[in-house]
Amino acid sequence: MNQDIKLADLAQLLGMSQFHFRHLLKQWIGTSPYKYPIAQRVKREKQLLK
């Protein structure tokens, strides 16, 4: 089964606010959590084109 993972659920699981979790995640991955999957897809497509 394919389910979307929500930031709010991850933040709750870790016992922190969604805002704080999003802020820490952005520091860790270098971009917003919403832009990260797009950036990874673009990166992969560039590799495939080479």
Could you give a short description of this structure?
This protein is 68% helix and 0% strand. It is mostly helical and 50 residues long.
Report on this structure:
There is one protein chain. With 50 residues, the chain is an all-alpha fold. Helix content is 68%, strand content 0%. It is built from 3 helices and no strands. The chain has helices at 7-14, 18-29, 36-49. The chain is elongated and about 45 Å long. The termini are far apart. The model has no long low-confidence stretch (mean pLDDT 89).
Radius of gyration: 14 Å
Count of DSSP-assigned helices? 3
Task: Indicate the mean pLDDT.
Answer: 89
Shape: elongated
Tell how many strands the DSSP assignment holds. Answer: 0
What share of the residues lie within helices? 55-70%
**Percentage beta strand:** under 5%
Q: Which class of secondary structure composition applies to the elements?
A: mainly alpha
Low-confidence stretches: none
Q: Largest sheet at a glance?
A: none
Order of helices and strands: HHH
Distance between the termini: 33 Å
Topology diagram in text:
Elements lengths: L6 H8 L3 H12 L6 H14 L1
Helix pairs in contact: 1-2
Characteristics:
mainly alpha, single chain, 3 helices, 50 residues, elongated
